[in-house]
């Protein structure tokens, strides 16, 4: 039997979910918490700025559309992974493992890309995760810096605050099991949602008018809007690690399952924050809407504290994925008796390296945007679509091959985000260093 035939063989007697042996499975509610946390981060505070570029009408419609496209691509990735598990009789697959199996068993002309694409996915997830962790350290430090300066007038360099932040983060990043990270992610979600709630209170407590606000964008600002929304909402690197650890994985992709509930909540939250934030502050909208709040108001200041501490707890989940990838590559080289110490040392060492990068380059956000634009389009759109095409090839595309046409439109959108987002990110970096 050829490899293509093997890929398309349906083994009705093999059920991946029943054959999974997860030592410490995560509950459905715990998985929901992680999925919300994976997409809820610093990006939501920049949504009013995204609406400034997109306009109120286009911004609201565009945010919903982009988030729905992203959710669909997550369905494609998780669905393809589950099909590959069933057809190859394996209980679970990670992102890069799914890529390797689908490409290596796909059409002959695509097989030579298997190794390259597998390595590319791991490297992009690692780079994106590492830079995001650095950005989180800087965000936490700057939040504390601003509060201390506004309240006490003490002007310390942000680098000192990064050193302080690293101390509690050492303990958070030593948690290795998703099950034990659920309370951490729950605290992070609660703090961030409280911060957003207080921010919305300030936004809505003052009257505003829509007459002087843009409803539609200029063509030149559409790419910035689309890139900002996708970068803010996407958490594709968490999807399969979280789904693989579920006690009831069949509830992940169901119509009222974990993914759809999480994304419905997040889409509502992101759209409301962006719409009303821009409606209130207009052309004065800052990069983070918390900067528009009155600095002399304790409640306004609390948003910075809450978001900073919330992001600190977010590092638990953010750290999980890159460390899993790294450990999968090096863990087998270490004796099992030393695995515990190996994990402790590896996690501590990587955190120290991240702290050094954050201290050396506290203005790292443009580089995170560059990697985010490139990585978001590739990991969240283009590769999931390619996997769906390969696993369906050559006949499973429905009436008049409408699924193939639909995937073609998604590729066009992904390429638009890739080119436009990368261009504007490079433009921002050049502007900083001119």
Keywords:
434 residues; mainly alpha; disordered N terminus
Description:
46% of the residues are buried. The termini are far apart. The chain has 434 residues and is mostly helical. The chain has helices spanning 3-8, 16-19, 28-39, 47-54, 56-88, 95-104, 108-111, 114-152, 158-172, 178-205, 222-233, 236-244, 258-281, 298-330, 339-360, 365-392, 402-433.
Quick structural gist:
The protein is mainly α. It has helices at residues 3-8, 16-19, 28-39, 47-54, 56-88, 95-104, 108-111, 114-152, 158-172, 178-205, 222-233, 236-244, 258-281, 298-330, 339-360, 365-392, 402-433.
Unreliable spans: 1-8
Total helix count? 17
Radius of gyration: 22 Å
Most strands sheet:
none
Mean residue pLDDT: 89
Distance between the termini: 60 Å
Q: What is the molecular shape?
A: globular
Percent of residues in helices comes to: over 70%
Helix-and-strand structural type? mainly alpha
Summarize the helix and strand pattern as letters: HHHHHHHHHHHHHHHHH
**Strand percentage:** under 5%
Give me the count of strands.
Answer: 0
């Amino acid at each position: 039997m050829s490899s293509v035939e093997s890929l398309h063989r349906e083994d009705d007697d093999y059920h991946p979910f029943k054959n999974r042996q997860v030592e410490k499975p995560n509950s459905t509610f715990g998985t929901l918490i992680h999925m919300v946390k994976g997409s809820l981060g610093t990006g939501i505070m920049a949504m009013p700025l995204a609406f400034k570029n997109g306009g109120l009408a286009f911004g609201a419609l565009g945010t919903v559309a982009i988030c729905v496209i992203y959710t669909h691509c997550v369905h494609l990735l998780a669905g393809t992974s589950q099909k590959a598990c069933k057809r190859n009789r394996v209980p679970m697959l990670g992102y890069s493992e799914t890529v390797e199996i689908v490409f290596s068993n796909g059409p002959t002309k695509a097989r030579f890309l298997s190794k390259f694409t597998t390595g590319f996915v791991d490297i992009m997830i690692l780079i994106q995760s590492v830079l995001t962790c650095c950005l989180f350290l800087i965000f936490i430090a700057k939040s504390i810096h601003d509060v201390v300066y506004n309240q006490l007038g003490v002007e310390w360099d942000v680098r000192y605050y990064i050193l302080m932040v690293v101390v509690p983060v050492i303990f958070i990043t030593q948690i290795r099991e998703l099950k034990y990270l659920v309370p951490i992610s729950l605290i992070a979600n609660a703090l961030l949602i409280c911060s957003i709630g207080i921010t919305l209170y300030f936004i809505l407590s003052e009257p505003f008018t829509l007459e002087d606000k843009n409803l539609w964008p200029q063509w030149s600002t559409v790419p910035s809007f689309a890139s900002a929304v996708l970068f803010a909402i996407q958490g594709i690197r968490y999807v399969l690690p979280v789904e693989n650890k579920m006690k009831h994985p069949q509830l992940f992709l169901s119509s009222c399952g974990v993914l759809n509930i999480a994304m419905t909540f997040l889409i509502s939250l992101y759209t409301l924050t962006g719409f009303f934030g821009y409606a209130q502050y207009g052309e004065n909208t800052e990069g983070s809407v918390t900067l528009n709040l009155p600095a002399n108001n304790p409640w306004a200041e609390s948003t910075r504290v809450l978001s900073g501490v919330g992001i600190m707890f977010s590092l638990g989940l953010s750290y999980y994925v890159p460390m899993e990838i790294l450990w999968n590559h090096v863990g087998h080289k270490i004796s099992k008796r030393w695995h515990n110490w190996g994990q402790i040392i590896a996690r501590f060492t990587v955190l120290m390296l991240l702290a050094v990068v954050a201290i050396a380059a506290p203005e790292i956000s443009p580089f995170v945007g560059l990697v985010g634009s490139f990585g978001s389009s590739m990991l969240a759109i283009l590769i999931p679509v390619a996997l769906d095409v390969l696993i369906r090839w050559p006949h499973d595309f429905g009436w008049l091959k409408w699924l193939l046409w639909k995937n073609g439109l998604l590729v066009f959108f992904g390429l638009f985000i890739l080119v436009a987002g990368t261009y504007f990110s490079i433009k921002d970096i050049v502007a900083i260093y001119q």
